[in-house]
Amino acid sequence: MFDILMILSLVILTCAVLLNIFRVVKGPSSADRVQALDSIGINLIAGIAIFSVYMNTHAFFELILLIGILSFIGTIAFARFIERGVVIERKR
Amino acid sequence: MSESAEVIAGVLIFLGTLISLISSVGLVRLPDVYTRSHAASKSSTVGVLFILIGTLLYFLISEGYFSIRLILGIVFVFLTAPVAAHVICRAAYRADVPLTQTSAEDELKEYFTVNEKQSGDSPSP
To answer: Which residues contact A72 (CB under 8 A, 6 or more apart)?
Structure first.
């Protein structure tokens, strides 16, 4: 029963990620795409948590932290690129 | 002991996935980059927090294993997801992404034009 509930949660999460991928493909501006990719990263964290509950192991908890940090850094870099055209500025 | 853990974790995780699905539906159906960002940032953050707290309680009740890494993940997601949405929205506004047709007024535009007139060139970050 609990395993079926976990599988069902993973299926619903996959539907959410597919809707996000629709927005990544279609999105009129690049800010839409970056926002949808950030949302995909957050959904991926949730998927790893559900999968570790389903497998009954706690070997994947570092991965949650790692994907959170990488998604945040990538989103900030893309937002700076959209806003100013450069990611890292130089002092002259 | 294991039964109560499964009930609590099952309810929290299923609720969290439903909130994530609602967030993605909002990301598809809303008309504007700002309203889409509003839907995507808040409700997917709440959904992932529900799921991570459910995972934490599952391992805490069933095995007595308290994961500090999961606590760190919860705090990090809770701190950084709204900041990321704010930065994306500001970048979209600076890149002149238009608002939707039904929006009533744009107060920030007036602020930016006044700021440009004072400083002379493009507004400093």
So the answer is: B76, B80, B81, B83, B84
| ipTM tops 0.90 | no
Tally the residues of chain A: 92
Report pLDDT digits (tens) over B39-69.
888 998 999 999 999 999 999 988 888 889 8
Residue for token digits 């995972």?
B55
Sign of CA dihedral A36, A42, A45, A46: negative
Give which of B101, B24, B52 is closest to A35, Cα–Cα. Answer: B24
Least Cα separation, residue B61 to chain A (angstroms): 12
Neighbouring residues of B16: CB distance < 8 A, sequence distance ≥ 6: A9, A46, B46, B47, B48, B49, B50, B51, B54
A45 touches chain B (CB under 8 A): yes
Which chain B residues contact residue A78 at CB under 8 A?
88
Does pTM top 0.90 for this prediction? no
